[in-house]
Amino acid sequence: MPAWQSDPSGRLLQRQAQGLTFAIKMPLPIDSRKKPASVKVHVTSGAGVDIAWSDGHASHYDFAYLREECPCATCNDERIRKSAFAGAGPASAAALPMFKPKTRAQAATTVGNYAIQITFTDGHATGIFSYDHLRSICPCADCAKTFRAAAT
Ligand SMILES: [Zn+2]
Ligand SMILES: [Zn+2]
């Protein structure tokens, strides 16, 4: 017979139950590297997005960069298609000149406390950039090493 069943007061069992409730109520431990301390979206000036993180790191993102890294399903598919093209041979991606005007942001809103949503000047607005994702695409060399090393 397990020890807790023979505990006449039942306290041990109760403690286990409380422990369980506690575990469910507690949010997952937050990675301070992915928790923003301040977020500035420079829509009017077009300067991009500046995020200061809880671990003291600061990231700057161009809107054009964020447009390229848009995490929505459509853009994901497009990126996969493009990378498939890039490997297909010399007649494909390299032949297309890129004279598009630099994409900027038309508007930006926060989504809950976990993401920002950006409407780009090319009309694209389905990209929701979670802070988690933003930190992992921080363009600096340190973050590339920390968050994207697996991809290389
Ligand atoms: Zn997208
Ligand atoms: Zn960084």
What does this structure look like?
It is a single chain. It contains six helices and six strands, in the order ααβββααβββαα. It is an alpha+beta fold. A three-stranded antiparallel β-sheet has the order 1-2-3. Strands 4-5-6 form a three-stranded antiparallel β-sheet. It is 35% helix and 22% strand. The chain is globular, with a radius of gyration of 23 Å. The protein has two domains: 1-30, no CATH class; 31-82 and 102-152, NE0471 N-terminal domain-like (2-Layer Sandwich), CATH 3.30.2020.30. It binds zinc ion (ZN) (2 copies). One zinc ion binds at residues 70, 72, 74-75, 124, 126-127.
Describe the secondary-structure layout.
Elements: H1 3-6, H2 11-25, E1 36-42, E2 48-53, E3 58-61, H3 63-68, H4 73-86, E4 105-111, E5 115-120, E6 128-130, H5 131-136, H6 141-148
Antiparallel strand pairs: 1-2, 2-3, 4-5, 5-6
This protein binds zinc ion (2 copies).
**Average pLDDT, all residues:** 81
The level-1 CATH class of the largest domain = Alpha Beta
Listed once per kind, the bound small molecules are:
zinc ion
Strand content: 15-25%
Which structural class do you get from the secondary structure elements?
A: alpha+beta
| H/E element sequence | HHEEEHHEEEHH
What is the helix fraction of residues, given as a range? 25-40%
